[in-house]
Amino acid sequence: MTSSASSVVSARNLCLTYDTNDGPVHALSNVDLDVRKGDFVSFIGPSGCGKTTFLRVIADLERKSSGDISVNGMSPEEARKTRAYGYVFQAAALYPWRTIEKNIALPLEIMGYDGQEQAKRIARTLELVNLKGFEHKFPWQLSGGMQQRASIARALAFDADLLLMDEPFGALDEIVRDHLNEQLLKLWKQTNKTICFVTHSIPEAVYLSTKIVVMSPRPGRVTDVIESTLPTERPLDIRETPEFLEIAHRVREGLRAGHSYEE
Ligand code: ADP
Ligand code: MG
């Protein structure tokens, strides 16, 4: 298949159908999408439209039924073997019996880094997510927002260029979420990562993204791809500007169009 050199994720006619006892579920249908290096791409759409499935296909946790998908120009399987991505789950998914430091160390242990290299990487990522000083705490001693930051640190620890984030802030209250959104943007700029980010929130998608992918269910498909015109410098009050509201409006229209199609 053809994909430009700067394409981190490239999908063409990508389909995935789950076989269930109630018959086939078309989770992804003819998805065409390019994620370029350094993009911050948000996936937004009602529950069941295939957002998680798409991230899981990129991560080689699900296999496509047909079409093409490449990650860093390779198959998802090859990309997984080269540790092409870090994955942040909806729930922080930290092990309660391990300290924050030991949670972040886990993937590094599996990859065989020595103790000194582990310590260096742990210190660096904790600094990136503003959790310096919490390395010896257990997850349950941290707030929900801090736990999610720890799980971002774990995904960053082996320094993959691509970060896959599935509704990482969905369970947090709005004030904490605002704060984490600001921090995540900073982190993205500092590290030059490519980020694929799933969310239910229109303001979150518009605030964070360079590109917004609007999806719709049954069958799961892409109904709109919006290239953001917002500047990269984004204070939180950018959300009250006409430009921001215009993009939010287009996302809302895309979501609505997806629904009327279904009913
Ligand atoms: P989203 O993340 O957008 O809520 P998902 O990707 O989780 O959507 O799911 C898309 C569709 O596929 C839904 O209808 C869901 O019920 C179905 N689905 C997801 N995972 C499985 C699975 N392992 N087996 C069968 N059906 C699944
Ligand atoms: Mg999901």
From TrEMBL:
Keywords: ATP-binding, Nucleotide-binding, Transport. Gene3D superfamilies: P-loop containing nucleotide triphosphate hydrolases. One of its GO terms (molecular function) is ATP binding. Coiled coil: none annotated. Belongs to the ABC transporter superfamily. CDD domains: ABC_NrtD_SsuB_transporters. It comes from the Bacteria. Residues 9-242 form the ABC transporter domain. It comes from Rhizobium tropici. InterPro entries: AAA+_ATPase, ABC_transporter-like_ATP-bd, ABC_transporter-like_CS, ABC_transporter_ATP-bind, P-loop_NTPase. This is ABC transporter ATP-binding protein. SMART domains: AAA. Pfam families: ABC_tran. The keyword Cell cycle does not apply.
